[in-house]
Amino acid sequence: MVLHCYFHSLGHSRSKELKGNPITFYADIVNAMLIRATGQNLQMEYTRSLKLLDHVKLSEKPGKIIPSGDIAALVYLWNPFTIVACVGLSTSPIENLAIILSLYGACKRQAPLAAFGWVIATHLSLYPAILIIPMILLLGYGTDTPPRKLFLQRRNVEVGDNPPNDRCCEREEVVHRSEVPHVFSWRPVIHFFCWTSLWSVYVLVLCGISVKQYGGLWELFKRTYGFMLTVQDLSPNIGVLWYFFAEVFDFFRNFFLIVFHGNILFMMLPLAIRLKHRPCFLAFVYIAISSMLKSYPSVGDSALYLGLLGLFVNELADMQFSFFLFCGYVGVSLLSPVMHNLWIWRGTGNANFYFATAMAYACLQIILVVESVSAMLNHDRKLRKPLTELQDGKN
Amino acid sequence: MAESEAEVPKAKPRPIVRLGIFLISHSCLFSVICCTAGVLTLLLLPVLAKNTYISENALMPGSANPMFSSQEVSEANRLVKSLTSLDSKPVGSGIESQRLIAEYMSDLGAEISYHKFYPRSNQFHPLHFFSYPDSGSTRENVSCISHGLNTVGIIRAPRGDGKEAIVLVTPYNSLKVGPGEALSLGIAYSVFSLLTQVTWLAKDIIWLVADSRYGEYAAVNAWLRDYHMPVFSGLSALKAEICPVSNVHNELKENSVTERKINDGFRRAGTMATALVIKVTDGSEHFEDSLSIYAEASNGQMPNLDLINIVNYLAVHRQGLRVKVEKMRSLINCKWLKILGEILQSLGHVAKSLNPQWKFGIPAKDYVEGAATLASSLYYQALGVPTGPHGAFRDYEIDAITMEISSRVALNNKARKNDFLLRGGRLIEGVIRTVNNLLEKFHQSFFLYLLTSPSKFVSVGVYMIAFALLVASLPVVAASLYADAHKVDPSFGIDKSTPQASATDELSITPRSCKWLNAAKKVFLVHLWGAVVSFLPYFICQIPSCTPTTSFVVWVLLSSFSLPILSLILGSSFSYGRPSQPQKRDWTLLKSVTISAAFIGLCLMSVINFATAEIGALLMVPMCLMAQPLKLDIRSRKLRKFLRVACNLALGFLGFPPAGFFVLKGAFEGFGGITVGDFWSWLESIWSWSSATYLYIGMVHLPCWVLCIHVLFHPC
What we know:
The complex is a heterodimer. Chain A is mainly alpha-helical. Chain A has helices at about 1-15, 25-50, 55-60, 70-80, 80-85, 90-105, 110-125, 130-140, 150-160, 165-180, 185-210, 215-230, 240-245, 255-275, 280-295, 300-310, 320-345, 350-395. Chain A starts with a helix and ends with a helix. Chain B has three domains: about 55-90 and about 105-120 and about 145-230 and about 260-325 and about 385-450, Aminopeptidase, CATH 3.40.630; about 325-385, no CATH class; about 510-575 and about 585-715, no CATH class. Chain B contains 25 helices and twelve strands. Chain B has helices at about 15-25, 25-50, 70-90, 95-105, 180-195, 215-230, 235-240, 250-255, 305-320, 330, 335-355, 365-385, 390-395, 415-435, 460-490, 505-510, 515-540, 550-570, 585-610, 610-625, 630-635, 640-655, 655-670, 675-690, 690-710; strands at about 50, 110-115, 150-155, 165-170, 205-210, 260-265, 270-280, 290-295, 320-325, 400-405, 450-455, 455-460. In chain B, strands 6-2-3-5-4-7-10-8-9 form a nine-stranded mixed beta sheet, with helices on both faces. In chain B, strands 1-12-11 form a three-stranded antiparallel beta sheet. In chain B, helix 5 (about 180-195) crosses helix 14, helix 17 crosses helix 25 and helix 20 runs parallel beside helix 25 (about 690-710). Chain B starts with 14 loop residues before the first helix and ends with a helix.
């Protein structure tokens, strides 16, 4: 209810600024709603797995588990980056909508929706293509849970205990039941692939029809994906590539293009292996990395991953450097317009001034990703600790 | 800020982490050392100043012989004489003098146009410094009755392509032409007439005779705005609707055959490379003819140092003028500054006796002069108000300075006057000829510098050290406070590394990353309040017939009311309530977040306007670092603690912007005749010049002061 009030008040305040073009505004609202629904889904799974792991004390205490969906939606809506991107009539809310739609669909295990979101997101900005790994994991394993090993361990403990009463047998059954989603189920994945091919053919045909007179699909690819991949536009943005490619010698250009884009791809596989039990978090990490290394980043991308970060507020509560990151984000987002002004309008600064803030921003993003991943792994370890103690005690 | 670096496993942290832990654990000592070093470096800046040099090779100042001769001087005399005779006539209205100047110009074969402008009233636009100056000029509210008239003459360069221009500006009051103004017009005219004949000119010359009836700055600014923003027919029709066209042009054109060259439209040359504002004052100097240079534009922006170098070089080495820049007079007779200068001098001697290669000592007198100049340089940059009409040019990225030539004696003697005109004319000719050699814009030398004398400067790389040392202690102290706040609470921090703590316990504690969120909320609220306070004057301005004192009182009342209202709306209470156990250490977190906010604000300001940030840091850093609940200190009855209480109260008093303003004003100008309204008038002047300093005071300094006071009176 409170959330709806917030929506309402926000709607009034922002729609005034967006005269005549409310589509990005509505996209943001829908984004927040979808994030909230995803968050509720994730939270249910979280409490369930905690119960299974016998952290009953934790899961039953009211107020200890923060409603992460609401938090994430609020973070997304009230984030100054979101507001700036929305007021600036950037298209990133729509791209974000496609990404969030696919995540939501995968969380709800609705293959057509997930496939639609993924195809549209890829079509719009190409980089979400890497989200196919978390999509498959989500559809195959289900939403984020503690590592599978823990459940096995838990079951071993229970079985080894050999209790006389049947309450524990019940528990065992529960544990057994909990195993079911942890077996990789191929059916939704195959559905997903079918739907993906269907949607992509659909989108391609539509595109082909509409750009027929302008040189066909190949021209479209060259002008859109080619433009993104070859970093032709070197006008300054909050990323780091424009400066680099303005400086680099032309004959090294192709090499570095491959290196920079390969960078994203190199990180995919190790992360996927380590975080395969938490596909949503994996998606967040992918989005953060790609928004850091993409060719034309904008604050709208940051708004998306900061919003998604709110989904894991329970798990990441012990994150280190949170205050430092917060100050850093505030400082950089204030400093970079000033530096831009100094360089472009007043002429007293130069490109290095602005690029310094872009580098600081990239560093902040790296720290955010590293710290959030390590906090998540720590959280998993913490969940394992009572189990190992229990086991040790018995042995 | 490595606030949680202390938590890394004890095994063998990396050196950088160990360094961080070391700094945080000795934050008190570190901050004292840093602050002292920062203040000392600031005091050392006059010693560290370097001699200026001309950085751009293409300029070649003074390489050509001056062509300015007595013939031009006689022309200047002719114009001055007719201007003064015009002035003595009773009917001499403004238009007469403009027509006269236009006549003289057209005799030289220059293109002439008039530029009519309407003065704008002072408006409240604090965010203006951030935008391009053109914005918002269409919805100006002009008063149709009063208008000024600039006269513009343009010489097309025989060797140029018309893409670049040099501007000469002579402001004068068209209603009453003073002797100094007439002389400045004479000098400009003589140079102008010389430039019509020369063959080396590669840039067009624009001579703007600015009508300073409504202020010199307004006239120049209006002309520049129209120069850079072409007015198309639609808009001009609109303007015509607003103001019935009083046909000035027709008035001016009548019964004059020579003025066939006058154009109705707005004449333009290319982009402006440089602008020189020429002024003449007389009879104030004791020793010799002198030249004062004014360079500060809005928000502490300076023209390229090369421009000042050229003028300084030509004035000193070619024309034998004494060059001055503004000084803070009250500092010259300052006792402690003299003593400090002598100490530095003797230190320099000692160093020289140890090793003749070390030459950093400067004479005590030079030191005091340098410090006074530096102080005034800092002050005028910090104020953000341009020191002359040259400030209007900087908004369009044009380097400009005001040259104020003043003579030793009153210029009644004819030969003396001719000599003065000759030297002034040669100086300006030399500067123009040098700038004429310029291949592109001034870019070689510094834009960010402070002057300690006309031939000495402190570059950004040096003066940033003083500031960086001052603020370096802020993040360290913030980090140590943050770490403290977590360590003190027994439930976490240290026990993380101990394996005995059960997992459920660890999970059930409130997440520590969220602890600072409350403090951050409070800080955010106060900064929001600061924004509200800084925008309140916009509404107070609208109240008609309000004396500064009443406006100030209204402002203070509204501000103090708006804080509780805001906290009520946003649901964060400022009343302390009963301090429960965990709340007792709340102030450390609050102080930590406050210090971080102050750090961000100061860094931001140092980029926008360094001088403001430096002065602000001098006031704010000690206040932020010292702030500690008074109750704690009073409870333990020790002398040291009482000293700290006294320090805190004094700093808290000084930190309050009006109090600080009155104390500083009293210290420099004496306490006589200070009224409460002074502060309001001062702020009004700052915001009407759209200075970023105003925003800094409202949105960084004031909130930090409120938070520090909040910490001071924290119950614990």
